[in-house]
Amino acid sequence: MSPYVVMRKRIAFLFFCVSAFLVVLIVRLAFVQLAQGAILSDKADESHYRGVPVAAKRGNIEDRNGEVLAMSVSTETVYAVPAQVRSSGRAEEIAHALSGLLEMGPEQVMERITKRSALEYVKKRVTAEVAAQVRALELPGIGITEDSVRYYPNSTLAAHIIGFAGIDNQGLEGIELTRDSELNGVPGAVLTEFAANGIPLPFANQMYVSPKNGNTVRLTIDKNIQAFAERELQKLMSGQGDNMNGQVPKSGTILVMDPNTGQVLALASAPTYDPNYYNNYDQSTRRNIAIQNGYEPGSTFKIITLAAALEEKKISPQEGFFDPGGVTILGKTVHCWKRGGHGSQTFTQVVENSCNPGFVAMGQRLGMDKFYKYLHDFGFGQKTGIEMSGEAVGILAGKKRATALDLATMSIGQTNNVTAIQLLTAVSAVANGGNLMKPQLVKEIVGPSGNVVESFEPQDVRRVISEGTSKTARQMLESVVTNGTGYRAFLPGYRVAGKTGTAQKVANGAYIQGEYIASFIAFAPADNPQLAILCVIDGVPFYGGSVAAPPVRGVLQDSLKYLGVEMDLKAPLTLGKPRLDMQIPPVKKAATVPSVLGLTLAEAEKSLKQAGFTVLTEGSGTVVQDQIPHGDSKVEEGSSVLLYLGSEAGAPTSGNWWAVEEEVDIDIETMLQMPWRQPLGQ
After folding, report:
1. DSSP helix/strand/coil, 349
2. Which biological process annotations from GO are given for this protein (predicted)?
3. 424: enclosing H helix or E strand
């Protein structure tokens, strides 16, 4: 081959290689420019743009009617760009200037403003006056950015449901924790162009990225019903409840639910705390007793035994039963609470009298397998799924080891351990026609613009009893209030069904003499239940009918009128059995509460007293910031209206409140000395 041809081939090969390289280069450049251009541009901006965060406002927490329970209030934060501070050569001077304004030590300020970081917060949540003073100093590397602080306008109201958020606006307890992702917004930033040495470039560009505020979480709670429950609970906790004789219980809870939907309308626990100042309270006050504490329910559990026995047709309301005063099983005697027993009676009277041997008979007729089936069907020994952290599951006696004696004591509400939310949920199934509903606390999530992002419907877990059984059980439980041990919950003109409960407290595996958990559970109207309510009082030497039924009556009375539930013309106005120790409150007319928002205390008191209401106040300001019940609400004539006071530009100050009613002097039943498990009936 001639040298000329070889040279041409080499030139052609070299040209091909160069062309291929150029093609690859062009393709790569096109890929970088077109496909990765935006990403690389953002990375380049990040390398020389530094942002000062602008906090997003955390979303509100509201009650079912849109009343604000938790909100974010604007505040300001002092920040430092350490590179600028160091390059200014005035770090010490800046530290001394800030320490006086921020009430921090110069060393602490110095450490923060010279730290090896792009941005450092010097102090969060300073007042507007302090922020203005810092701006006026025009210190190099020091700036002010917008921030927010969580504020709970109703002080202690619904504290155990709402929970609280920390200094960085992160949810720590309650709904603030469980719905943290929805409540949190997306922070924005003010971006400034910096050189490599951390100094802003001359004539630098600035960009503002707007923050996106968090969503609002709307609860099923009704602020007014919550206030009614907390009022009654605070009366008990201050020793002012009916029949308390000045004694103060260790703790208590009142739960209110719509039995048809499972929506929780109120959840009050005591002792309580103010989430605005949660650090000032002992951690025990933050415990949600209704969700996290288990207890032996006592006779309130007999509703479940009754429903199961009726469903399995093991008893009928008019069937006869003889109570000799006790029943002996495996050598142990389970006594009736009434010395000598109730004698001959129907099973309706067994329920009215809370007769222990009668309920033991129901459990025996059901048998172990059927009894445990209903325990599980009604949700005992398992979490209800309510949206609260730390829910307890309760404790059930192991079926394989359970004896006939265990079956007897379980039938009257001993041996097993339940939570208040479990019991109210189960009894609501008896009240609503037989459907076990999942307890619901969150109604919907609402976006910053007011649109509903997500709505939550009631959840039907399972059917546990028939409509017919539910109807029969409701009638028998109504008789408990009209003719039996629950008479202190009687409301003239309303059909109330309920059950008393008293359980001895257990410590170190033994029952404590003279110390009880008193409870009362009720629903109304009995023929078409709209409310189910449970009151549990821990650490009192009294029966449930004496101390737990009156607060249930108080909450039911105000709540039924508030909800507009009309009195039943066919409902009894007097008790079926005359009670010398029971003063039935007179039936009063409904009255409309005037709105006094924005008025001075003197003007508000004048308006409310002219309308026939009494006035309670919380706070030390001069202007009415909020009121419970709210304007245009219909409540009983002569009721108390709670006014939250504050300054015109501020918010109501915190404090404890409760309505004080005239006490009814009722004799306490003689305490019976009972052996072994000492089952109680009232």
Report:
1. helix
2. cell wall organization
3. helix 420-431
The CB density around residue 297, as the number of other CB atoms within 10 Å, is 33
| Beta-carbon contacts of residue 89 (< 8 Å; ≥ 6 apart) | none
Q: How far apart are CA 363 and CA 143, in angstroms?
A: 73
Residue-number span of the structural domain to which 203 is assigned: 53-219
494: amino acid identity, one letter: Y
| One domain, residues 461 and 315 | yes
Rounded to the nearest 5°, which phi and psi values hold at 609?
Answer: -70, -35
pLDDT in tens, 349-389: 999 999 999 999 999 999 999 999 999 999 999 999 999 99
Answer yes or no: is 382 within a domain. Answer: yes
Cα torsion at 107, 113, 119, 120 (round to 10°)? Answer: 30
Q: Which residue reads 């002010």 in tokens?
A: 144
Asked whether 661 and 554 are in contact (CB, 8 A), the reply is yes
For the chain, the straight-line distance linking the first and the last C-alpha, in angstroms and rounded, comes to 120
The number of distinct structural domains making up the chain is 4
- List residues with catalytic annotation: 299
**Is residue 681 assigned to a domain?**
no
Q: Residues 545, 642: one domain? A: no
Q: Which residue has the tokens 């003073």?
A: 133
Q: What is the CATH number of the domain that holds 367?
A: 3.40.710.10
Per-residue pLDDT reduced to its tens digit, 171-192: 999 999 999 999 998 877 766 6
Q: How far is CA 335 from CA 284, 328, 357, in A?
A: 36, 8, 7
In this structure, is residue 580 part of a structural domain? no
**The pLDDT value given to residue 675:** 32
The residue assigned the tokens 């101390």 is: 547
Q: What are phi and psi of 56, to 5 degrees?
A: -85, 145
What is the C-alpha to C-alpha distance for residues 66 and 22, in angstroms, rounded to an integer?
A: 66
Q: How many other C-beta atoms lie within 10 A of the C-beta of residue 516?
A: 25
